[in-house]
Amino acid sequence: MHTLLDLPCPINALEPVISARTLEFHHGKHLQGYVDNLNKLIAGTEYENLSLEDIVRQASGAVFNNAGQILNHNLYFLQFAPKPSSPAPTGKLLKQIEGQWGSLDAFKADFVAKGIGLFGSGWVWLQADASGALSIAQYSGADNPVAHGLKPLLTFDVWEHAYYLDYQNRRAAHLEALWGIVEWGKVEERFH
Ligand code: MN
Q1: What is the CATH architecture assignment of 91-191?
Q2: How far is the CA of 121 from the centre of ligand 1 (A)?
Q3: Residue 51 CA, ligand 1 centroid: distance in Å
Q4: Which of 19, 24, 26, 78 has the most neighbouring CB atoms within 10 Å?
Q5: Which pLDDT score is estimated for 109?
Q6: Rounded to whole angstroms, how far apart are CA atoms 73 and 31?
Q7: Taking Cα atoms as reference points, which of 88, 72, 77 lies closest to residue 27?
């Protein structure tokens, strides 16, 4: 049985970047819905006792979509903090970003541009390959780096349910605001 992730902070703690009302729907309704759907879909099947990562690697169709959305949202919600103790990357991750993009600001601009440019519903990801090389990917629907054999580091959800109550059509403004709540220590843990 898969269960709903506990949010790492109170539901209003990420305001004004992400409002309590958005989280009530995004976490309490959308993510809960994916969890309920997946549990129904996998009961009595070969996927019943697999981890989310293994389901994402092996399944297709509705099972893939619901498992992928749970995995994506779990990584998404756990990477934020109201007052990040690590508001910027350091060490190996910073060095790699600077080596590939020139500066952290140039990386952020590229990441947001790819989030804005993703047509329809999906996720923009910072991902790493086995050698530690980074890339930014635009994945539609529930797709994610794990399905492509890559390591997921950081993600911004560009499904409208992630921002429409607070930002309506202003996806760019929402994505820019998210930088203020990224807990880069979490991203660095995923990179190691
Ligand atoms: Mn979402």
Answers
A1: 3-Layer(bab) Sandwich (3.55)
A2: 9
A3: 20
A4: 26
A5: 98
A6: 7
A7: 77
Rounded distance from Cα 105 to ligand 1 centre (Å): 25
All residue ranges of the chain with pLDDT < 70 are none
Q: Domain residue spans in the chain?
A: 20-78, 91-191
Which H helix or E strand runs over 70? Answer: helix 61-78
Class of residue 51 by CB neighbours under 10 A (exposed 0-12, middle 13-18, buried 19+): exposed
Q: What pLDDT does residue 125 have?
A: 98
CATH of 20-78, one of 3.40.50.800, 1.10.760.10, 1.20.1440.230, 1.10.287.990: 1.10.287.990
CA dihedral 9, 15, 19, 23 (to 10 degrees): -10
pLDDT at 192: 85
Distance 30 CA to ligand 1 centre (A): 7
Q: What tokens appear for 138 in the block?
A: 């635009």
17-43 pLDDT, tens digit per residue, is 999 999 999 999 999 999 999 999 999
Distance 76 CA to ligand 1 centre (A): 9
pLDDT at 126: 98
- pLDDT for 179 equals 98
Report the distance separating Cα 18 and Cα 160, nearest Å.
Answer: 13
Task: Supply the pTM of this predicted model.
Answer: 0.97
